[in-house]
């Protein structure tokens, strides 16, 4: 049996960062006998899939493939189809649950189970290579953007940890809008042993100054966390950092969560306005926490931790003010009724699709106007410590 995965993996490791897609194409043609391949990457708003290689596919083939590729991307399952005597395989490109895009492999003959398995392994290796290469070249980021990013948005996207992560106990996803002009809102997370830390920031102001404030806050929180600081110590260090920079004139509303992935116990510091909503058994209800001072409002502010438990099957949404309080044309805030309907509509969707649904409904709520504020949606699905491992 041809060691397809090993050969492709070696080819990817030897390739320059900006040539990963071409190296994969050559290797897949060689070991799987593919007629052609293409790598599609999701754009910043996750509204479409776009080819990495210019001229890689004829326009008619590209148009035909996009719809099937989107089905593969949404379901995160391989899709195959027969077209004019040839077979096309569409395979999700995902790393630890973060959905990057789709790999197309076109074959002359119908693939058997062995080929399907090899192709899936190749897609996994390619996804890992693309994620690593993304730090060394701008090529894949150019493929993902459909418009020029503002300077503030460029900074915010660089700060993000990713757009999703899936492990045995949980699935987590986040989305940031408006993707190309976002200013201060942000989300961050980290997985460390039996602890998942999630933060959502409701940044004050707009543009570059808001992005700079958020950058200071995120890095202060990370500095405390990476130094072994507790949740309250993370909040206190970030608060002091902001205060001594701006003397109380600027501050950042922040929600910090720490999930014990062995038990589902959640420790929380509510330092401002991001809202927390739990969906359990079809019932949607806010989790009421004692709201404390935003980070940076006063010197030497101390924060208290509150706790609650997650049950297997629970879904948590965290949303910034740009979602909860959005009130286009005086129609009433999105969070009053429309947001609950959107969240209930995600019942059968994975977390990565759920954040997109809530955000699309927010755009629809604005009808023909642009979002007037930054918006963040984070979704956490809690499976429990014995949950299925999709990593």
Main traits of this protein?
2 domains; Phosphatase 2c, domain 1; globular; 11 helices; Beta-Lactamase
Structure, explained:
It is a single chain. With 391 residues, the chain is an alpha+beta fold. The chain has two domains: 139 residues, Beta-Lactamase, CATH 3.30.450; 234 residues, PPM-type phosphatase domain (Phosphatase 2c, domain 1). Helices cover 36% and strands 26% of the residues. It contains eleven helices and 16 strands. The strands form three sheets. A six-stranded antiparallel sheet has the order 6-7-16-15-12-13. Strand 1 and strand 2 form a beta hairpin. The protein is globular, with a radius of gyration of 22 Å. It starts with a helix and ends in a 9-residue tail after the last strand. The model has no long low-confidence stretch (mean pLDDT 90).
What's the layout of helices and strands?
Elements: H1 4-14, H2 20-32, E1 36-42, E2 49-51, H3 59-75, E3 79-83, E4 86-95, E5 98-107, H4 113-133, H5 139-144, H6 151-159, E6 164-166, E7 170-177, E8 186-192, E9 195-202, H7 207-226, H8 231-246, E10 253-260, E11 265-271, E12 275-280, E13 283-286, E14 306-309, E15 315-319, H9 321-324, H10 338-344, H11 351-365, E16 375-382
Antiparallel strand pairs: 1-2, 1-5, 3-4, 4-5, 6-7, 7-16, 8-9, 9-10, 10-11, 11-14, 12-13, 12-15, 15-16
Helix pairs in contact: 1-2, 1-4, 2-4, 6-7, 7-8, 10-11
């Amino acid at each position: 049996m041809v060691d397809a995965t090993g050969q492709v993996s070696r080819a990817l490791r030897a390739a320059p960062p900006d040539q990963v897609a071409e190296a994969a194409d050559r290797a897949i043609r060689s070991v799987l006998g593919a007629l052609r391949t293409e790598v599609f990457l999701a754009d910043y708003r996750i509204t479409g899939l776009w080819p990495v290689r210019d001229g890689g596919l004829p326009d008619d083939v590209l148009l035909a493939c996009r719809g099937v590729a989107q089905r593969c991307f949404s379901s995160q399952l391989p899709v195959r189809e027969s077209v004019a005597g040839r077979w096309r395989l569409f395979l999700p490109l995902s790393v630890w649950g973060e959905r990057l895009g789709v790999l197309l492999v076109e074959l002359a003959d119908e693939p058997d189970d062995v080929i399907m398995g090899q192709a899936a392994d190749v897609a996994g290796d390619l996804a890992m290579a693309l994620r690593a290469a993304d730090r060394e070249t701008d090529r894949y980021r150019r493929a993902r953007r459909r418009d020029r990013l503002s300077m503030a948005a460029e900074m915010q996207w660089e700060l993000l940890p990713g757009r999703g992560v899936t492990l045995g106990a949980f699935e987590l996803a986040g989305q940031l809008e408006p993707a190309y002009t976002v200013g201060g809102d942000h989300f961050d997370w980290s997985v460390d042993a039996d602890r998942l830390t999630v933060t959502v920031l409701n940044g004050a102001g707009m543009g570059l100054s808001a992005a700079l404030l958020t950058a200071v806050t995120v890095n202060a929180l990370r500095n405390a966390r990476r130094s072994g600081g507790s949740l309250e110590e993370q909040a206190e260090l970030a608060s002091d950092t902001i205060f001594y920079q701006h003397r109380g004139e600027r501050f950042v509303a922040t929600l910090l969560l720490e999930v014990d992935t062995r038990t589902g116990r959640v420790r929380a510091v509510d330092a401002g306005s991001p809202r927390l909503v739990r969906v359990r058994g079809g019932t949607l209800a806010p989790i009421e926490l004692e709201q404390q001072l935003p980070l940076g409002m006063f010197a030497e502010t101390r924060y208290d931790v509150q706790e609650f438990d997650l049950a297997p099957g629970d879904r948590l949404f965290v949303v910034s003010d740009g979602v909860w309080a959005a009130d286009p044309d005086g129609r009433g805030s999105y969070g009053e009724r429309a947001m609950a309907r959107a969240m209930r509509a995600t019942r059968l969707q994975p977390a990565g699709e759920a954040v997109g649904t809530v955000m699309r409904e927010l755009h629809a709520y604005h009808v023909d106007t642009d979002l007037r504020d930054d918006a963040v949606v984070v979704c956490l699905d809690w499976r429990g410590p014995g949950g299925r491992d999709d990593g």
